[in-house]
Design goal:
Blueprint (H helix, E strand, L loop, with lengths): L1 H4 L7 E3 L13 E2 L3 H9 L4 E3 L6 H10 L11 H13 L4 H7 L4 H9 L6 H11 L11
Parallel strand pairs: 1-2, 1-3
Family: Belongs to the MBF1 family.
InterPro entries: Cro/C1-type_HTH (IPR001387), Lambda_DNA-bd_dom_sf (IPR010982), MBF1_N (IPR013729)
GO molecular function, one term: DNA binding
Amino acid sequence: RARAMEHQDFKEVTIGRRAGASSAGGGGKAAKDPKAVAAALRAGMAVQTIKKDSGAGRNALKLELDDENLSHKTVSTDVKKAILQGRLAKKLTQAQLAQQINEKPNIIQEYESGKAIPNQQILAKLERILGVKLRGKGVGK
């Protein structure tokens, strides 16, 4: 019986490693093609499968442990007060001011209520129409 097995090829086929990379069990060849793996199994070769870590578990854990506050920066109280005071000094309604800067009235409402995310272009238009500094140091002057 020992003679009958001498003709069989028992080379190891490793899946999940680069071809030519040495493994701990010997110098097996990496086979990524499912047909090659099936052929190796039919031929009676030893087949070792190695599951690669995709990193998804680590990323999920990182997200789970992250307690960072993820909120957008909104208009400061100084800016919203300066817009309101500048608009009232010019005796404009929110709709009139919005029309002068070519924006919708709800944009002015959001800036005056402090809910708007600052947009430098809109702030520049408001500075020009109201004559009030809204960006940088010295807001409201």
